[in-house]
Amino acid sequence: FVFILGYAPLLSLGALMAGDALSASWPLAAPVGVLVAWGQLIAGLLDMVENVALMRTVLSPKDDLAPRVARGCARGKFSLITLGVTFISLGLICWGLQ
Question: What pTM was computed for the model?
Answer without folding.
Answer: 0.91
